Amino acid sequence: MSLRWRLSVCIALSSLVSVAAQAPPPVLRYTAPPNFLKLSGTNPEDFTANDVSAGIQIYPFRPITASLQVDWQRTLLRDWIDPRYRESNVAGPPAFSNSSMPGAQAVLVARFTESIAGFPREHVRTVIVAGGSAAIVDISAAGGPSWQRISPTVGALLSSLTIGAATAAPPPLPPPPGPSGRTYAGIFMGTKQRFMVDPFGTSTFTASQHFYIFAPDGHVYRTFDVLTVPQDPSGFDFATAARADADNSGQFAVQGGFLIMRFGGAEPESLRVPLSPNGSFTANGVTYTRQ
Question: CA-CA distance, 91 to 113, in Å (whole number)?
């Protein structure tokens, strides 16, 4: 990678930083990879191969700073990666390159190998910069036959990437009725299948506790992470959660015996589920009860 190219990218990124505060981030569109299972309700968009040890995670656009290029060269933007898929032992220096895409100011690519207990796992990480924001497509597979098997799928996915304008946000929910909102506030828990990857790259689904946090003011957040669940929902930092995990942050209302929830993110999701007499509810096939 030439010094001239690195300098031109740095200058371009610096000029784009102020744009992020002026307009909503764009949306990365793509054709879902065949022979991969999409794990619903996750952030990032998460796909796992049906027949080999391989995965694809697609992270939505988020605002960038002027240090993006330096951080990319130094850390591969590892902090942007979900902890389940974050590399811990890169074997040898990454191979950096650049590409192009209509509507993108820069497309940064890194290929590297992670050593997991002596076994190689190949990674290709692509950062797409547009409109003062950046998105990541992160692809990994066990070395050898697994990577060869998914190569045609990877090529088709990358070729399908396009940058679109942000869709208009859905209208806000009406404020929940005071008594209903205050009465329904609390922590609700259910048991949901969670996709997990062990240190050897093997993927499996595990029954795990899953929580909904309802605040008296109408905010809601859902999570698998029991450590983030507060004893008092009114003390939970919903603003920080919305910035870090928009897909699982939203608003709720209780109307006519139904619980109505709207979550944000690149693809907003709305749920309208009936409430049982004891206040529990069933969402996406999982029953949640007050804790």
Answer: 6
Q: Which of 232, 234, 210, 231 is nearest to 222 (CA)?
A: 210
Q: Is the pTM of this model over 0.85?
A: no
The ranges of the chain with pLDDT < 70 are 1-23, 40-43, 166-182, 195-204, 266
> Which residue segments constitute the domains of the chain, with CATH numbers given?
3-164 (3.40.1000.10), 178-290 (no CATH)
Tokens of 223: 């999570």
Both tokens of 250, joined, read 């939203």
d(CA 184, CA 218): 9
φ/ψ of residue 290, rounded to 5 = -65, 140
- Specify the 3-state DSSP secondary structure of 110: strand
Backbone φ and ψ for 21, nearest 5 degrees, come out as -80, -5
- The answer to whether 275 touches 253, Cβ cutoff 8 Å, is no
Structure tokens at 56: 């694809």
Measured CA to CA, the distance from residue 161 to residue 184 in angstroms comes to 42
